Amino acid sequence: xxxxxxxxxxxxxxxxxxxxxxxxxxxxxxxxxxxxxxxxxxxxxxxxxxxxxxxxxxxxxxxxxxxxxxxxxxxxxxxxxxxxxxxxxxxxxxxxxxxxxxxxxxxxxxxxxxxxxxxxxxxxxxxxxxxxxxxxxxxxxxxxxxxxxxxxxxxxxxxxxxxxxxxxxxxxxxxxxxxxxxxx
Length: 184
Ligand SMILES: [Zn+2]
Description:
This protein is mainly alpha-helical.
């Protein structure tokens, strides 16, 4: 059982991988290169989500502790200035925070009322129907295309090639080597 986020429509890792592969394919994004997170948010998401806005907030305007967050009712992705700057400079963790929010946009935007209300669905549920687990999986799959991994790649190779945090590269590496992909 899992209780990190809200209960949403179930999606397996394979469902999410198919979606991230489709996103890259549809928008002709090279799976051998780092995902262009900011260009995607600034140029592509507004074409996909009517009314979408991207707000970069001064650190003193930001809710405490907020690095980046998607507000489904307002259709707004908010990001702390320092996170934006770091993502712009290629910092893996900051790129990851933004891709996690892209996960909420792509996977949960039509379940926004539930996410924003923060009541229905919270509590114990399976991980594949947990909003945070799904967004974390989307983040990893979007940044590190599973089909591109090879047995020769080290964790550092993966992090460097795809401009991710070492922690995210390590999870992808473990999944590849332990063949955990099919666990759901
Ligand atoms: Zn989240």
